User: What shape does this take?
Amino acid sequence: MLALLSKPTRPAVDWGGLSRRILDQSAQACWVVDRELVTVGVNPALCALLGYRAGELVGTHLLAYVAESSRSVLERQAAIRDLTPHRSYDVTLIRSDGTPLRAIFNDSRLDGEDGGSAPGFCIFVTDITRRFEEETQRALRVDQLADAVARMNRFLGQICQELKDPLSAILGATQMISSDVAFPDPAGGGPGQGTAHLGAYAALCSDAGRQMMRTIENLSLWSRLQLNQVPLDLRVYELGGLLQDVLEELEPRARSRDILIVNRIVATPVLGDLFALNTVLKHLIENAVRFSPSGSIVMLSAALADGGVTVRVQDNGLGIPEDLQPHLFRIDPPHAAPGADGEMGSGLGLLICKALVERMGGGIRVFSKVGGGTAVTVTLTRGSCTGL
Assistant: This one.
């Protein structure tokens, strides 16, 4: 006969106390609220996360710690709390010191006795502030990269157009030369009528070729500067002597347009790189000549300022529209404008000057007014105690 085994007696369990111990010992921040979203209980992890004591939180409304931007989210979740026992959503809380805290609420309904209505809700809080900031920064970097790529593409399109125009002029001139040579003067005995224009065609080709070469050289230099492939050797140079070499190269072009370059820079020692100084001076003076009307003056001067040397290139040219001035040292949007003689530049000159001057420890600024000319000032490190 089988003996009937009695069921073991189960000890009474204090489920409320057990829940309290689990809540207190949980490493994850936990928030218990009633149906009106009034705080019933919190654990130490939540107090540490928000910077409040438990006595300050219990009895207060949950919305008091939610950022204005997230209140509608919490209210919407509270409205559907009886439809689903568990919900997960993002909110922004406000710590005791006023700083925002981005968090995920894992919201679970606490079922009442005998299947009755839920007396409240247990919310586990996960801090995702760092992750949110990292994602925000990542998205910002992606946007910046996309913007840089778009600006670079527009810039390359502009450069292609700058190269296309003079190349078209060269091709057109060479076609006219070929036509004149192939069809001599029908009357015979001498060169054709068009052959007399060969000199003009050759000059056109020369000007267009020079423009293309300058654009290509500037583009090559600018790209190497972006890749940090232009080494600089900083030494003390006498600016007046460097200017003489630059002016010898640029004065024939200035004379052809009846522009006088007045150089008031004499013994001015500066700390810089020989190639960089020559490049900056050439670009600035060449720009001043290009945008100056025939018969005007380009003034070069220098002065001591705060232990450095400020070099100024002033012209009386067309001036730069105010809306374009903030973009002078950017590759986008396109801001290159034709000079006084209609010759277009690539817009790279000032970008190159800025990069070189800053690598020599200086700075560059542009002051301009439409119809009132342009002044470009470059600040360099003074080379010695010798006065100007």
